[in-house]
Amino acid sequence: MLLEKNQQLDNHKESIKKIVSLSPEFSKYKIGREELTISYSEKFGKRLSHNIKKIGKKTGLEIVIFDDHELSAGDVDYFNDIIRLKNAIRSAISLQSVVESKQKGKFFKRRFSTIAKPKVVVWEEAPVISSEFSYMAEKYGTPYFSVQGVIALKYPNSLAISWLIPPLGLLSEMQNRHATYYYNIVVNVETTEVIYREFRIMYNNARQSNIDPIIYDSFKMLRK
Amino acid sequence: MRNIFLIAIFTLALNTCAVTRVAAQASDRAYTPIIYTAPIPGDFTDKPADRRISTPEKRSKDKNMSDSERKAFEMQLRYSMNSVMKSGEIYFNDEMSSYINEIVAFLLKSDPVLRDNLRVYATRYPVVNARSMGEGTLLIDIGLIARVENEAQLAFVIAHEIAHYLRDHSFEKFKKNQDIRNDLANSRESESELFIKLMRHSRKAELQADKEGFLMMAPSYPPHQALAMLALLEQSDRNHFADSLNYLNFFNSTDNPLDSMYSRLMKKSTKDYQAIEEKKKGKAEEKKDKDKDKDKDKDKGKDNKKEGGQENDSEEGEDGEDDDELETHPDIDKRIKQLTKEMVTLGDTGVSLYAISSEKFDKIRRIARFEHALMLSENGAYGQSLYESLQLLDEEPKNQFAAEIAGKSLFWLCLFNKKGDIGEVFTERSAVKQASYDQLHFLISKLKNTDDGKELVKVSALFLKKYSAQFPGSEDLLIHYGRITGLRADGKEESRSIYRSYLEKFPKGIHANFASKQLSNGE
């Protein structure tokens, strides 16, 4: 689990009331013995968008989602604003390194994270995007925009032959063959800084009942 | 009736808004980047299940194909096209795409059914490439449009892609991939052997598309332009820009002359560069001699084989050389050789280089070049975008847009340098193999290493100051002048005064919220 925040995040918390989510993505892959195949379905993405909105409300956040599921002939803002900003955030995240601030506190707290209390890295210098997107704060009624998504992986099933040797078969059946990744990056277009970024791994399948608590916790991190 | 009227007004209003925005900027920028306008074509809004799939005749008649194979392929196509078309990387309602479509209509004037099955768009991908997606969509990359020399060369590329579509090469590739997976699962052959097989199949398809595309374009355009296009592809890591550029024209400001150290540095960089080039030339000649010796040895080997009565079982053609066995495309020499044979039978067709219009071609190529520089800067290739925008500024010194891209690129280079990441965004010997690119790289490297990077910030700030004065209507130049000044340890107050003057000039500007925030944060 990797939770990182800008030094300024605590100052932002009061003002984070509305976030525009830039086309959340849900990708599902099946890893075979020799290849990786993508599972095609629109319903995963639609459900994710719906739940992000619902969970946002529970945590006191208004989440506005712009996704590509229901585009109409007049939705040019999706191409002129939403996708351009999303690409700019991705580019900033992939190209710029961050400077971590020296953290104080107990040795254990500084180094390890637990499920109850995840370790949060604080940035001294955060990745930045171009200031040409700052007009979007007025246009969309908030300076906060996020890139969110889920990547679900399913690993191959155990070999049927392993069942012939009972303890081995049982062991291999007990192994988890799923990994679900959740990411959330929040940017403030007025200051141009990425204020929060997280990456969580869960060794369980991507059922909504598994993903929802992660999203809830993620939004709570932005509020508390 | 009332509803239709309302829709018409709504659509018109959307279009008018977009046109007004473009016109307002066009008057003073010399080039205006492409903005997406409504109505968005169905290819960009349709859900995967509703996506239009134009199946080539070959596939509909193929009896060896099972229903499940067809379904699996079409499912993959629908979803991959959905993500490509909604990625923001494909232009629509733009001049480039409409010009390309005119060429397609001209090439297929005798086959209106095929013409209607094809949808052709220009893309924002900066590479020299084009692709047929297998369901009737052809995508022509901006890197290619910026690079071609005339309409005939572009027509050859388009005809080549149409041939891929007609021959259903994407489905063949899909099937081949599946066969290879099965073979791999059954462990009949090693992974590398299967990969080589797949590449060989791909090269065969390319040669076929070359030949059929050539025959399609030859009656309408001078056929030798197909050969010229292939030769140009061989040099795709070079561009159309000059091999030498005097960078002092941009960076030497008269109202605030750079100190003598900088002039010395510039002279030194040129001198050092010449030395490097000479060294490289020497090495290249040495390599050439070695290659010649190798070729001689190969020829000897071949003669021995022939004498020994062994057969050449390569699928690569009569010369049997397999230098490109790991490549998707055949060696350019092989492709040129194939078309040269066809040329002999065709002779001179006496047709013009331009069937649509040379003026239109020049216009769309100019658009492609500016969009290419913009694209590079948006993708974080700041070294390359600086290089291209300076070349464009050299060609059109009054072009505000070129100065803006250069100014923005300089700001980002300085910021990345401060973070210690400049190598990520300005690579030595990157996609551009050109002396003037190397020279710019050399110059920026020297500047970033001088005085702990302060020299690079200083020179870049002078550039932005100079061009902000030359183009007082530019929001981008002024805001980046403020941002770059703020990178200096002692520049905070100066940058705040620049933000203040930005807000006075452009209270509703696109950077206005950023400028206000910077001012309020400092209070």
Structure in words:
The complex is a heterodimer of chains A (224) and B (523). Chain A has one domain (2-223). Chain A contains 7 helices and 10 strands. Chain A has helices at 9-12, 43-58, 76-95, 107-111, 136-140, 166-174, 208-223; strands at residues 2-6, 18-22, 25-31, 36-39, 62-66, 99-100, 120-125, 144-154, 178-188, 193-202. Chain A is globular and about 65 Å long. The model of chain A has no long low-confidence stretch (mean pLDDT 82). A 3-stranded mixed beta sheet of chain B has the order 1-3-2. In chain B, a hairpin with a 4-residue loop joins strand 2 (130-132) and strand 3. The N and C termini of chain B lie far apart (58 Å). In chain B, 38% of the residues are buried. Residues 1-27, 253-257 and 305-320 of chain B have low confidence and may be disordered. The interface between A and B is large, with 42 and 51 residues.
Q: Tell me the number of strands of chain A.
A: 10
Order of helices and strands of chain B: HHHHHHEEEHHHHHHHHHHHHHHHHH
Helix content of chain A: 25-40%
CATH architecture of the largest domain in chain B, please? Alpha Horseshoe
Mean of residue pLDDT values of chain B: 82
Protein structure class of chain A: alpha/beta
Q: What is the total number of structural domains of chain B?
A: 3
The first-level CATH class of the largest domain in chain B is given as Mainly Alpha
Name the helicity range of chain B. Answer: 55-70%
Largest beta sheet of chain B: what is the strand line-up? 1-3-2
Q: Low-confidence runs of chain A (pLDDT<50, min 5 residues)?
A: none
Radius of gyration of chain A: 20 Å
